[in-house]
Task: inverse folding
């Protein structure tokens, strides 16, 4: 199975700040990488698919990049609603696997 | 508007089975594979498997092959996941998702005597 390592596991940040979350795969995943946001009530929202493509309705302050084994999610200027958990997920090979998550907290 | 409506929380006894449902609306049911994902309390997400609603072909994570059974009812646009021989390790929230694009609200399963 492909292991997905997300860093950091938690990140205190301020409103308006630019933040980047990293995700490293244990082997190359050919850009087959999604990002999700999960709110405390459990609601899961897809943000980005295939490394860098925004899902419909996702604000442009979110962006994704990467290749090979290393990927990242960047939020250019934090809004109050962005403080949540974030997960990466590879879908290059079965079983699809998720990172351990990053908790974005208000500093 | 796309919606995946999952069945309500379940309290089940160890050793029993439970069948969760996921009713899709607002899109063509056969356009997306239905995946199921497990989230234990405070933990990350685990992919259980998927079913192709058109062909009913299934693909399971090896870890869940003897635990989960995925089915669909195309007449009602509903996907099901049955979990068998439940233990405390199966206590978790289970999500269905259409192609990882649309997500249900999750179903909390608690295994307790």
Result:
């Amino acid at each position: 199975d492909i292991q997905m390592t997300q860093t950091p596991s938690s990140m205190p940040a301020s409103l308006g700040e630019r933040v980047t979350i990293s995700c490293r795969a244990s082997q190359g995943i050919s850009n087959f990488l999604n990002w999700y946001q999960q709110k405390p009530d459990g609601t899961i929202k897809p943000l980005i698919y295939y490394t860098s493509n925004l899902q419909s309705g996702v604000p442009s302050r979110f962006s994704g990049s990467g290749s090979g084994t290393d990927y990242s999610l960047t939020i250019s200027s934090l809004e109050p609603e962005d403080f949540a958990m974030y997960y990466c997920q590879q879908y290059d090979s079965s079983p699809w696997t998720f990172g351990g998550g990053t908790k974005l907290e208000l500093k | 508007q796309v919606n995946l409506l999952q069945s309500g929380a379940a309290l089940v006894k160890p050793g029993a089975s439970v069948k969760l449902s996921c009713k899709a609306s607002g899109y063509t049911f056969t356009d997306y594979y239905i995946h199921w994902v497990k989230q234990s309390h405070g933990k990350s997400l685990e992919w259980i498997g998927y079913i192709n609603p058109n062909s009913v072909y299934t693909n399971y994570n090896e870890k869940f092959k003897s635990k989960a059974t995925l089915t669909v009812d195309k007449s009602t646009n509903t996907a099901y996941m049955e979990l068998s021989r439940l233990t405390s390790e199966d206590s978790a929230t289970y999500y269905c998702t259409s192609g990882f694009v649309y997500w249900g609200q999750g179903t909390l399963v608690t295994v307790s005597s």
Observations:
- Chain A touches chain B through 19 residues (CB under 8 Å).
- The two ends of chain A are 35 Å apart (CA to CA).
- The longest strand of chain A covers residues 19-25.
- The mean pLDDT of chain A is 98.
